[in-house]
Design a protein that fits this description.
With 407 residues, the protein is α+β, with helices and mostly antiparallel strands. The protein folds into three domains: 227 residues, 3-Layer(aba) Sandwich (Lysozyme-like), CATH 3.40.80.10; 63 residues, no CATH class; 103 residues, no CATH class. The protein contains eleven helices and 22 strands. Strand 12 and strand 13 form a beta hairpin.
Length: 407
């Protein structure tokens, strides 16, 4: 790109910024620090700024990112910004991620959550707020425009039943921020033109539609966007699998499958993925309500990791017993006689789903979705000790660890 072309692009961005419909005003930033802020370590460096879309409404999304410390800044539809984690500290926002050969991008990046959806435009107030926020952060950390990138560019997936290799396409989060017109409104004049990790053979492309949105030419991008806006985008068919729709949330307890006969199952309740009938609708957490006529299994109850259990919960499937010999049994697996003679030292968890074990091809996120790092998600490590989700790094959890999470 020659100097004249670059100057024309900058003038275009300035024209767009000056002609936005609402009057300009200074960016408002308030402190809404996560309770986990103080425990987070300092970042190694700040090489990237990652743009996210919440895929849900303001209140629930803000509550979630504050609870778990999942971003540095949060921008509402009205253009107000909140500080969630101090910008010098690590926020857990990128998950399994890679860019330019670097993994665990949380160590090198600031994360901005913007209330909205990956395939929809943001508000004019958000454009102004994010543009100013980016300008401030880029000036402080000297981050060039081509390193301000959407989460979908850096997220990658481990091998699974649909893809044998580590692959790009795990997330669509922030996909809209790869569109040149959107970036121009944010004052960004350049962007990555290819995927460095796919080109180097570190990853393969799992979603050609997403790849075209992120790196394609104008025609390729427009055709790919139609794929994501289709009315059938959340319906399983011969050409659209559960993974195509839900990505790494396909086995999550938060993802629900509405079968053509009205039956509903959660992702962690499905074992035969080939048997899911065409026409099954996939409901992702926070995106859609279940139809009133649909029926679902009763929710479990209880909320504590405790050393005793009340009689009415003793034989529930949501009551988990950890025996001194390291066996794990659910309440519905024990007879009244066994319950009456539990060995000394038995620990009891009430109101939890037994998610199963972590393996090379099954991560904590696969088992319980976004609950994986909640403070009340319980992990029993292979040595028999217990810890909670907020004490763990997903990429370093040992294999054969058992996961228990609230329903």
């Amino acid at each position: 790109m020659n100097a004249r072309h670059k100057q024309l692009k900058k003038l275009l961005c300035l024209f767009i910024a000056l002609n936005m419909t609402a009057p300009c005003r200074a960016l408002q930033i308030s402190n809404r620090y996560s309770p986990r802020n103080a425990e987070r370590p300092r970042r190694k460096s700040t090489r990237y700024i990652i743009l996210h879309t919440t895929e849900g409404p303001t209140k629930g999304s803000l509550d979630k990112v504050r609870k778990n410390g999942e971003c540095h800044y949060f921008v509402t539809p009205g253009g107000h910004a909140y500080r969630i984690i101090e910008r010098s500290r690590v926020a857990y926002h990128a998950g399994r991620s890679m860019w330019e050969g670097k993994t665990n991008i949380d160590q090198y990046a600031l994360g901005i959550e913007i209330v909205g959806f990956h395939n929809r435009d943001i508000t004019s107030s958000q454009y102004r707020a994010v543009q100013e926020l980016l300008a401030q952060l880029q000036r402080i950390y000297r981050v060039p425009d081509e390193r301000v990138i959407p989460h979908s560019m850096v997220a990658y997936g481990a091998p699974n039943r649909w893809h044998r290799h580590s692959h790009r396409g795990r997330k669509r989060c922030g996909m809209c921020f790869a569109k040149p017109a959107t970036r121009a409104k944010l004052g960004l004049t350049s962007q990555p033109m290819f995927d460095p990790d796919v080109n180097a053979g570190r990853l393969v492309v799992a979603d050609p539609f997403l790849q075209n949105v992120l790196f394609g030419n104008i025609r390729e991008r427009e055709n790919a966007l139609k794929h994501f806006d289709s009315p059938d985008a959340t319906v399983i068919s011969a050409s659209r699998s559960a993974w195509d729709i839900a990505r790494d949330q396909y086995r999550s307890a938060e993802t629900r499958y509405v079968f053509p006969n009205g039956t509903i199952k959660r992702g962690n309740q499905i074992t035969d993925w080939k048997a899911i009938p065409p026409g099954t609708r996939v409901l992702l957490h926070g995106e859609e309500k279940i139809a009133p006529h649909a029926e679902e299994s009763p929710a479990t109850a209880g909320d504590a990791f405790t050393l005793k259990v009340s009689d009415n919960k003793a034989q529930w499937s949501s009551t988990i017993y950890f025996l001194p010999d390291k066996r794990i049994r659910r309440g519905d697996e024990l007879s009244e006689s066994e319950l009456a003679h539990l060995p000394k030292g038995t620990r009891i968890l009430t109101g939890y789903i037994q998610g199963g074990r972590i393996t090379q091809n099954r991560s904590a996120f696969d088992i319980c979705g976004e609950q994986w790092n909640d403070h009340d998600t319980i992990y029993r490590l292979p040595d028999g000790t217990f810890t909670t989700g907020n004490q763990l790094n997903e990429n370093s959890i040992p294999g054969n660890t058992h996961v228990f999470f609230k329903d």
